[in-house]
């Protein structure tokens, strides 16, 4: 029986502050992850939007699945602030989530503050180099 390497979706099962970002990834909970991440009540997940330059509602399905536990979603859009498409904001609003786009650095800092205040916050963070 050939078992080979099993590749699983990246997932840290808990809420954790983001310790560092840059070089294409993030550090949290004494670990590092290369690529973008979703910080949700269920944990920190690897996130691969189909087109990071043009986010769609489908890219936020995991967020929508946990909408009952999220009041605000911080969206780190890279080095610069980029507005979310109206359809994405509308879909998140329908689920009861206020979405706030900002640069990834600003989103990381704001996420850490709101997490420390035990707020119902989530973050969708695009990696930066």
Molecular structure report:
- This is Mth938-like domain-containing protein.
- It comes from Neoaquamicrobium microcysteis.
- With 129 residues, the chain is α+β, with helices and mostly antiparallel strands.
- It has one domain: Hypothetical Protein Mth938, Chain: A.
- The protein is 21% helix and 31% strand.
- It is built from three helices and nine strands.
- The chain has helices at 61-65, 86-94, 104-116, and strands spanning 11-12, 18-22, 25-28, 31-34, 36-40, 43-47, 72-76, 98-102, 121-125.
- It has a six-stranded mixed sheet, sandwiched between helices.
- A hairpin with a 2-residue loop joins β3 (25-28) and β4 (31-34).
- The protein is globular and about 35 Å long.
- The mean pLDDT is 92.
- Number of self-contained structural domains: 1
Average pLDDT for all residues:
92
CATH architecture: 3-Layer(aba) Sandwich
| Side-by-side strand order of the widest sheet | 1-6-5-9-7-8
Distance between the termini: 41 Å
The CATH topology, please? Hypothetical Protein Mth938, Chain: A
Order of helices and strands: EEEEEEHEHEHE
Number of strands: 9
Query: What summary fits the major beta sheet?
Result: 6 strands, mixed
CA gyration radius, whole angstroms: 14 Å
Percentage of residues in strands: 25-35%
Indicate the structural class: alpha+beta
Question: For this structure, what is the CATH homologous superfamily?
Answer: MTH938-like
Shape: globular
Assembly of the depicted chains: single chain
What is this structure's SSE topology?
Blueprint: E1 11-12, E2 18-22, E3 25-28, E4 31-34, E5 36-40, E6 43-47, H1 61-65, E7 72-76, H2 86-94, E8 98-102, H3 104-116, E9 121-125
Parallel strand pairs: 7-8, 7-9
Antiparallel strand pairs: 1-6, 2-3, 3-4, 5-6, 5-9
InterPro entries: MTH938-like_sf (IPR036748), NDUFAF3/AAMDC (IPR007523)
Protein name: Mth938-like domain-containing protein
């Amino acid at each position: 029986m050939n078992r080979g390497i099993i590749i699983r979706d990246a997932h840290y099962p808990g809420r954790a502050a983001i310790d560092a970002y840059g070089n294409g990834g993030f550090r949290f909970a004494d670990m590092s992850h290369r690529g973008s991440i979703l910080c949700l009540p269920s944990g920190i997940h690897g996130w691969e939007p189909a087109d990071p330059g043009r986010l769609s509602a489908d890219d936020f399905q995991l967020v929508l699945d946990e909408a009952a536990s999220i009041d605000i979603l911080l969206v780190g859009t890279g080095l610069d602030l980029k507005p979310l498409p109206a359809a994405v904001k509308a879909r998140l609003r329908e689920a009861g989530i206020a979405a706030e786009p900002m640069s990834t650095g600003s989103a990381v800092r704001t996420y850490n503050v709101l997490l420390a205040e035990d707020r119902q916050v989530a973050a969708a963070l695009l990696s930066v180099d």
